[in-house]
Specification:
179 residues; alpha+beta; GMP Synthetase, Chain A, domain 3; SH3 type barrels; 2 domains; five-stranded antiparallel sheet; three-stranded mixed sheet
Length: 179
Amino acid sequence: MDTDPKLTRVWEIVEPVALEAGLELVDVEHRREGRGTVLRLLMDKGGGVSLDELARVSRQVSDVLDTHAEAVPGSYTLEVSSPGINRPLTRPAHFPAFVGKRVHVRTRQPIEGRHSFRGILTTVDDRGIVVTGDDAQSHPIAFDAIARAQYQHEFTRGRGDRAHPRRTERRPSRRHGVR
């Protein structure tokens, strides 16, 4: 899916460290943020990853990347974290676990006149996926056409919760010093 040679090289360097720690490297991002650049590594494992595990592997990855300075030239901030609730799907092997779940897929080139597909991941095979959109239409998308994809967690409301507060529940505004 991502073909940036720099990110591919970082992946090759970092993945063995993650696997040795019992973690899966989910995604690699390198981008400008604020006044510098950030190299963000997303790692996970079945049942979730702890902060202690992330801290330990962060130190190991930092040491390994220091010996491969050509992989990420210049200065950067290394961030190692979990993928979060809306997990990116970066490899074909990530998709089968999310069949029947809501996803958002962005494509490199327009398919059916659009780049963005939101809906239920209904099918995965060796060539690509099918997303049944909110419009109830099936949209086949080849793996090599995917620019970014992620699972979209659907929150359920607890008893008594409403999606939006009622107008009468809003606090009255204070004007002209009147309480």
